[in-house]
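Reviewers of the previous submission asked for a worked example of the structure-prediction workflow described in the proposal, so we include one complete record here. The input consisted solely of the amino acid sequence. No template or homolog information was supplied to the procedure at any stage.
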Amino acid sequence: MNPITWRVEHFEEINSTNTYVSVKAKEGASEGLVARADYQSAGRGRLDRTWEAPPRSALMCSILLSPPTSPDEMQLVVAAVALSARSALGALCSVYPQLKWPNDLIVDDKKIAGLLAEVVQSENGITIVAGIGINLTDSPEGLPATNALKVSGVTITPEALLEKLLEELNIRRGLLDTEAGRQMLRAEYESVLETIGRSVIVEQSDAMFPALATGIDATGRLILNAAGEEKIISVGDVIHVRHVQVIAP
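From that input alone, the workflow returned the following structure tokens.
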């Protein structure tokens, strides 16, 4: 596909970039709309959690995408954005986070970025609003979180990071158009997915259980071994159980 012409709208303050882009999508906005805010007064995370950061301390934006994928493959769209953010951080401050299923970027098991993707039905068909927040100079207190300045010593502006992220996303967006491309994207995703091989606690709306994460399927769903039984999940929060070093007596 031809590169997308990104249309970035900047707000000094907004309630939520995801809410803004979702409304615009329902009104018929086409792929490539990007909303970036210096500050969000009602930023949202997964499971209706709030997400807030001091002004300009993070890149906070939402991107409208319309790949020819089904809603069941939304995790691959999330992966495309997450991988693009990872490459952008690497290019600007030499930090390459690992990914944590389903929607976080982590450095030493500390969250540096998170995503929230939503499927929106519009007059243009199924579209996906992918919101991302990347900690640049500040981290939420009381959480295992970090930021680009802390881990690299480099100050990155939201503008510079967004420009590089969209440049990287133009490459990966094209992969979503074909089966072969999606396989390439899945392979890149799996190669940096820290969750694979980890003992985890899975939290879903109606259950919580321990498991071993063994891989992802063709659509990016997480494959688990739970008490000897294979489970495949598309939604849920995953808590990495910390690696424990056993010292022989």
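The chain is about 25% helix and 30% strand. We consider this example representative of the routine output the project will generate in years two and three.
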